[in-house]
Every structure is written in structure tokens, then in C-alpha cells.
Amino acid sequence: MKIDSDFNDIDALGDDHIGSSIDTPMRSDAFKLSNNEKIDIIKDDVRHILETLGLDLNDDSLKGTPKRVAKMFVNEVFGGLDPDKKPKASTFNNKYKYGEMLVEKNITVYSTCEHHLLPIVGRAHVAYISNGTVVGLSKMNRIVDYYAKRPQVQERLTIQIVKELQSVLNTEDVACIIDAKHLCVNSRGIRDIESSTVTSEFGGKFKEKEIRRELLDYIQLDTQF
Q1: What span, in angstroms and rounded, lies between the C-alpha atoms of 113 and 58?
Q2: Which of 10, 27, 80, 128 could form a disulfide linkage to 174, CB 3.0–4.6 angstroms apart?
């Protein structure tokens, strides 16, 4: 039966963590509703899920959960879906003529796997070589955080970070490496708590073997304070 076949295909795709596109899949009417309207709808949906599981939402500990979850989804965990929250990355002229790569390493990544809606937790390492323009260091962290705060696959997240910084800095010479644990692997399914996933995207000069090697050496530096 075709419906059964479709569900089997969806299950297989979810376990294999196959992505669909570089851009986050969004409907054309994604921003028709206000955030408050979305919270009200999601609150009812969460309540229905919990009640279906058999939980008593009259209990003092649970009765506020539907709204808490709805607010968390809209304002925090999936806040990166809101274009109004996109960080404004101001750039500056590279007046000090720094010509080597700049590496911001160990940027904390908190994201959500779009196949099972379970956390992705790890570190991102982002680098660029200026062609005359530099960006504030904190903006690199904010760009990572913005694209992480949406349902994601790690491959797409890595590419989106690079493409955004390439656009901001007007250069192809941008790279990103992410090393992260996926709780859909660590806490369910195979339940392998030791494994992590590493993805990378190298643009421009970072495709050159020597430049890429230099970046990897920087990342491995033991930074302690």
C-alpha cells in the first residue's frame, strides 16, 4: 500500500539524517501569524500530546508545561526561524592590514535535529581571511547561534554559517567546522553515547591543502586561561 510505503521511506530518511536542501524548508505563509498567535496554537498542540500520553495536566507540576514549551519553541529553541532576529553583522575596514586567517573556535552550538526534535550539542570553529573587511568577533558567535536555533541537520547548519559570513564579509574565504553530539543517536535508536558528528565547509582559499591544514592546527591549540 502506498501510504505504508511513504511512512517507511520517512522513517528510513529520519534515521539516516538525510537533508533536503541548503535553505531551511519554510512555507510561503510562515510569517502570517504573530509569535503570540503561534504560541497559543502550539500550547494547545502540546497539551494534546501530553494528554494523549496519559499525563494529568491538572497536576501542579504539569499544568503550565504546554505554555512553557510553546514559548520556548517560538522565542528560544526555534527563534532562528524569525528573520527579525537575524543578527545585524556590522563590518569594518581592515585598517591594521591583518592578512592572515582569523579563527573563532569553540563556539557553543545548541540546535535541534529536525528528524526527531532532539538536541544537537557541540562546538563550531569558524574562520575567515579578510579581503579588506572584518566583522566583530561576537557577531560570528551570533550568526552560529541564529542558524542553530531552528530545526536542523548539521550539514545544512555548517553551510548556512559559511554562506552568511561570505555574504557579510564579501569574500569566499570562509570556513566552518562543527563537532557535535546528536541526542537522536545518543539517547535513542542505537544509543551510542560516545559518538559525535563532524561536518565542514571550506570556501575560497580554505580549499587549498596548506591553508586548511593551518586552520586545523589552530583549532587543536590547547587554549586555557
Answers
A1: 31
A2: 128
